[in-house]
Amino acid sequence: MMGNQAQKLQELVATNSAKKSKKTRFIAITSGKGGVGKSTISSNLAYVLSQSGLNVGIFDADIGLANLDVMFNVKIKKNILHVLKGEASVSDILIPITRNLILIPGESGDEILKYSDAALFERFMQEAQVLDKLDVMIIDTGAGIGDHIQMFLNAADDVIVVTVPDPAAITDAYATIKTVALLRNDIGLIMNQVKGEKEAEGVFEKIKKVAKANIGGELDLQYLGKINSDIKVSSSIKKRELFSAVHPNSQPHTDITAIASKIAARLERNMLVSPNESGLSGLLKRLIQHF
Question: How large is the C-alpha radius of gyration of the chain?
Answer without folding.
Answer: 18
